[in-house]
């Protein structure tokens, strides 16, 4: 019998679980919005924006800079939430251990 074969089995199990987490995250969405709720953004687990909602009142102001800043803020908030979700999923896989390169992969 090969010494350390049990470790190989654990590695293969972790690899399968990691792929399952990746699949789950691809289907996951995170929402971000401005404090006043005028701009809402949704990103998926691949950090791609999938929806934007801008309140008509904000558009009606015609304030281009304000709209741009609101879009940036809401987008960044959604991405940060997605990073938190991904980190929580990875923590389940690693049992809370900090494995360099693996636990930080989604940050």
Summarize the SSE layout with pairings.
Layout: H1 5-27, E1 29-33, E2 39-44, E3 49-54, H2 56-61, H3 64-94
Helix pairs in contact: 1-3
Write a compact overview of the structure shown.
The chain is an alpha+beta fold and 107 residues long. The chain has helices spanning 5-27, 56-61, 64-94, and strands at 29-33, 39-44, 49-54.
Q: Calculate the mean pLDDT score and round it.
A: 85
Helix vs. strand class: alpha+beta
Gross morphology is: rod-shaped
The amount of helix comes to: 55-70%
Q: What is the CATH class?
A: Alpha Beta
| Major sheet details | 3 strands, antiparallel
Q: Could you please describe the fold and organization of this structure?
A:
- There is one protein chain.
- This protein has a single domain, classed as Nucleoid-associated protein YbaB-like domain (Ybab, Chain: A).
- It has three helices and three strands; from the N terminus they run αβββαα.
- Strands 1-2-3 form a three-stranded antiparallel sheet.
- The chain is rod-shaped and about 60 Å long.
- It starts with a helix and ends in a 13-residue tail after the last helix.
- 13% of the residues are buried.
- The model has no long low-confidence stretch (mean pLDDT 85).
């Amino acid at each position: 019998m090969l010494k350390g074969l049990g470790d190989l089995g654990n590695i293969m199990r972790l690899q399968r679980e990691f792929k399952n987490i990746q699949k789950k995250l691809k289907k996951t969405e995170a929402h971000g919005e401005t404090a006043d709720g005028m701009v809402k953004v949704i990103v998926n687990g691949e950090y791609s924006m999938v929806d934007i909602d801008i309140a008509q009142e904000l558009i009606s102001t015609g304030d281009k800079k304000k709209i741009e800043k609101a879009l940036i803020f809401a987008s960044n908030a959604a991405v940060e939430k997605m990073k938190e979700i991904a980190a929580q999923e990875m923590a389940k896989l690693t049992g809370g251990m900090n494995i360099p390169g693996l636990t930080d992969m989604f940050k």
